[in-house]
Design brief:
Radius of gyration: 15 Å
Helix content: over 70%
Structural class: mainly alpha
Shape: globular
Strand content: under 5%
């Protein structure tokens, strides 16, 4: 039962997304995201312990959020919504909107709007590779870089 669920959310699938040039372009977009978001939202975050910071960013933020939004929610939406706009599915757009709305809890409207586009990128790689890991890595990189720099 757990194996089927983990297959469904893309945890057990490990397609070699590291051979995908678009994945590296998405990594390069991280600093662009940090730069533009820094104009609108200041994180006011101080890192006392870098190891603790990166561990919590991965295990308490990036992985759980991706597990739910791109793993579970996007997978459920894909079962019922098959429309696409170029390379982006309506299921991905819907999950990204919900992800953004989720960020209204404790964040500003600009922050919530700002996470919409990275959420589309995370969902794109989740769908393209059938694996949750590209989305988790990108999410971790985007969050860690922003909070570490700003």
């Amino acid at each position: 039962m757990f194996k089927e669920f983990f297959d469904f959310v893309g945890i057990t699938k490990t397609n070699n997304f590291f051979k995908d040039i678009l994945f590296y372009i998405a990594l390069l977009l991280g600093p662009v995201f940090w730069f533009f978001l820094s104009f609108f939202v200041k994180a006011h975050f101080h890192i006392n312990d870098p190891l603790y910071f990166f561990i919590t960013q991965f295990f308490l933020i990036a992985f759980p959020e991706e597990f739910f939004f791109r793993g579970f929610l996007l997978s459920v939406f894909k079962k019922y919504i098959s429309l696409h706009w170029h390379e982006i599915s309506l299921a991905n757009i819907t999950a990204a909107i919900i992800f953004s709305l989720f960020h209204l809890i404790g964040h500003s409207y600009l922050w919530a709007f700002g996470v919409f586009f990275p959420a589309l990128i995370f969902g794109y790689f989740r769908e393209k590779h059938g694996s949750l890991w590209p989305a988790v890595i990108l999410h971790f990189f985007y969050n860690s870089g922003y909070f570490a720099l700003f």
